Amino acid sequence: MKKYLFSIGIAFAAPALWAFSLANLTQTLQKPANVQGAFTQQRYLKSLSKPMTTQGKFVLIPKKGLLWQMEKPFATTLRVRADGIMQWTGSAWANPNASKLGQNRQIQLFLDLLGGNTQGLEKQFDLALSGTEQQWTLQLTPKTAITRQIFTRIGISGDTVVRKIQLDEKQGDRTVMQFEQIQTGKPLGEFAKSAL
Known about the structure:
Largest sheet: 11 strands, antiparallel
Number of strands: 11
CATH architecture: Clam
Order of helices and strands: HHEEEEEEHHEEHEEEH
Shape: globular
Number of domains: 1
Strand order of the largest sheet: 6-5-4-3-2-1-11-10-9-8-7
CATH class: Mainly Beta
Distance between the termini: 60 Å
Number of helices: 6
Helix content: 25-40%
């Protein structure tokens, strides 16, 4: 009898475990009006024995843009939106990479990664989602010629927000971004409002 009840319990629980889909993930990550917190980014280069580490704060408005305020090792503020990457000069926004080719593709990838736009990611990667809404992992395997030239894989993990992104590059370098002290739906500061 216990085995029978256990089997019934598993049968009822299993659909709930399997039900977390890419559509659910997108909905979860795009639910908050905004996401604010701190980041630590470590860049591991084959040519260096220690990672290059940067730290700072960020503000993300899903489907709209990202304010990336690096504080260490030096201060710089970037705004990432669909119309490009801009750097704050202290009095105005300027485009530091106006002449770089492929910038729009990189911008869109970064916004898709943080904002949970799985439809945008599926255009360039095969996606494999595992876990539940409380603890999930999304593995991205490049499927286009352009993404295969740059990445071997991308891993994203989180819960109601993205907590970690790891970019493994073809030449052996990797970047790990950790997001902490996260708050959702908190009123934006004046600078973030005007930037985004």
